[in-house]
Structures are given as C-alpha cells and as structure tokens.
Amino acid sequence: MVLKNKIKINRNDALLVVDMQYDFIPGGALPVKDGDKIIDLINQLIKTFKLNQGIIIFSQDWHPSNHLSFASNHLNKNPGDEFQSKGIGPVLWPDHCIQGTKGASFHKNLKIEYVDKIIQKGLDPNTDSYSAFRDQLKDKETELRVFLNEKNIKRLFICGLALDYCCYYTAIDGLEFGFDVYFIIDASKGVDIPKGNISDKLKKMKESGVKFVNNQNFL
Ligand code: VGL
Ligand code: ZN
C-alpha cells in the first residue's frame, strides 16, 4: 500500500500540515488519539521540505463560537450525535478551535518558523470546511488553490489531523484541482468517528488515486 520508491523534494512540492492545533491533541476539546506523537515526525518533514526548497503550509481550523458544527449551538444535541444538513455533519462536534483561543493555536513544538503560508478555514458559522481548499458545500474556496498554483506546485504532500476528516477532504479536493496528491500515513492520525471511518477513508483515497508514503520514503 505504501510506495516503495524514494522521493526527492524540489521547489514544485508542497507540504500541507493539517490542523496541528491544541484542541485536536490529547488534552484538547476534540482530541485525536496520539495526535501529539506525530509532532516530531512532522518537524522532520518540515526540515526536509525547507532544505530542498519545497513550500510549507499549515491549515488552521478557525471557528466562530456560533458555528453550527458545535452540538452546543443546537437544542438537545450532544457531541457525536448524528447530524447532516447543508454543509454540517455527519456528526456534531464539541466546541473546538474557536478563533483566538489557546485551543485554536498551533502546538508550540511545531517548527512554525519555516511556514510559508497559513490557511484558515471554518470561519462561516453556517457550513463546515473539513477541506483546506473549500467548504463542505463546495461554494467558497480558501486561498489554498491559488497559492499552490502561483508557486507552481505539482505534488501536494498531506499530513496532520484528523486523517478521516480534514486530511481526507483536503486530499480528495487536491486531486480534483489537478495536484498529484501524496498522503504521509505515519504523520497523520484519525478520530475514527463513526467507527471504521479511518479504514473507509483510506480505502476511498486509494481508489481515488492518492499515493501513500511514510517519512522514510523521503531522501
Ligand atoms: C476537524 C472535525 C471538526 C479536523 C475539524 O481537523 O479534522 N474535524 N473540525
Ligand atoms: Zn472544526
């Protein structure tokens, strides 16, 4: 399942580090199991991309407190309850990554000094934006596509949190927008909500043409 060949990063490559924020790390509001264990690996990747003139991008979930993906903004709903309506769902979440809070900030151990661009998403209270490219209704894009095209990026390497939500939707949109998409398996962790979601989303990515790699594939 993981590619065998070695990969040499160049100036047409981008590393997209998805949502490495306190709320997605154990201790946060929407913790991803072992989310903190991938920080060192991501820092190694950041160094590899920097050394080889690749571009480094961080995405940041950045919600207003009245965001409709929060169970607290619905009557009689709890985090994890099923909910599917106009760009929200398939479940409701605990309040997380509220703009300006500690939970929304990047983990302090990340090599943020090497970042070329930060893409914020989920700002519209009425629709979610798992993908770093655009909202779930596919209505409004972030700056990501234009930025990647301006920098003449061909290969997009994705890692971070959560594998089965923001990483997955970003990877699928990346393919649709014409990028050669690589998913760095060992530098990503998922929530697996509902159960089986991680393996389902890995299968969908593979079928769609996403390539799987590990940190050791990089030269
Ligand atoms: C995410 C659920 C809600 C993610 C963001 O970063 O994967 N998941 N908001
Ligand atoms: Zn969110």
Whole-number tally of structural domains: 1
Query: Helices and strands, in N-to-C order?
Result: EHEEHEHEHE
Bound molecules: pyrazine-2-carboxylic acid, zinc ion
Give the uncertain stretches in residue-range form: none
Q: How would you sum up the major sheet?
A: 6 strands, parallel
* Helix proportion: 10-25%
Strand order of the largest sheet: 3-2-1-4-5-6
The appropriate CATH architecture is: 3-Layer(aba) Sandwich
Structure summarized in a few sentences:
The chain has helices at residues 39-51, 144-150, 163-176, 197-208; strands at residues 13-18, 55-61, 117-121, 155-161, 180-189, 211-213. The chain is α/β, with parallel strands linked by helices and 219 residues long.
Question: What attributes does this structure have?
Answer:
219 residues, alpha/beta, Rossmann fold, 4 helices, 17% strand, binds zinc ion
Strand and helix map with partners:
Blueprint: E1 13-18, H1 39-51, E2 55-61, E3 117-121, H2 144-150, E4 155-161, H3 163-176, E5 180-189, H4 197-208, E6 211-213
Parallel strand pairs: 1-2, 1-4, 2-3, 4-5, 5-6
Helix pairs in contact: 3-4
Bound molecules: pyrazine-2-carboxylic acid and zinc ion.
General description of the model:
The chain has 219 residues and is α/β, with parallel strands linked by helices. The protein has a single domain (13-217), classed as 3-Layer(aba) Sandwich (Rossmann fold). It is 21% helix and 17% strand. The protein has 4 helices and 6 strands, in the order βαββαβαβαβ. The chain has a 6-stranded parallel sheet with strand order 3-2-1-4-5-6, with helices on both faces. Helix 3 runs parallel beside helix 4. Residues 61, 63, 69, 96-97, 122 line the site of zinc ion (ZN).
